[in-house]
């Protein structure tokens, strides 16, 4: 299932060093799961705002530069065929007093 959100329809990704962006879309359980993937693309479309538009046929990746909460980047791939999962990561939240 492809998702439709503020940057249009596709599979959403964040930069690895901005993983908290992805964590915001996981469940609120103590253990959360994310995956790390390579995303193949040939032509990238860069935007600096949420435009809600789907990618034109000649682009296969949208790069939302400094968009959303905390000025983080987002990437949207057009299809699952572009996504090559590498790792599944379980993140366990611990609360310390």
Query: Please, what is the oligomeric state?
Result: single chain
Structural category: mainly beta
Q: What is the CA-CA span between the terminal residues?
A: 40 Å
Mean pLDDT: 84
Strand order of the largest sheet: 1-2-6-5-4
H-E string: EEHEEEEE
Strand content: over 45%
Low-confidence parts = none
- Note the overall shape: globular
Helix content: under 10%
**Rg, please?**
14 Å
Helices, by number, come to 1
Described by strand count, sense and barrel closure, the largest sheet is:
5 strands, mixed
In brief:
Helix content is 5%, strand content 46%. The chain is mostly beta strands and 97 residues long. The chain is globular and about 50 Å long.
Mind explaining what this structure looks like?
The strands form two sheets. A five-stranded mixed sheet has the order 1-2-6-5-4, with no helix packed on it. A two-stranded antiparallel sheet has the order 3-7. The chain contains one helix and seven strands. The chain is mostly beta strands and 97 residues long. Strand 1 and strand 2 form a beta hairpin. It starts with a strand and ends in a 5-residue tail after the last strand. 5% of the residues lie in helices and 46% in strands.
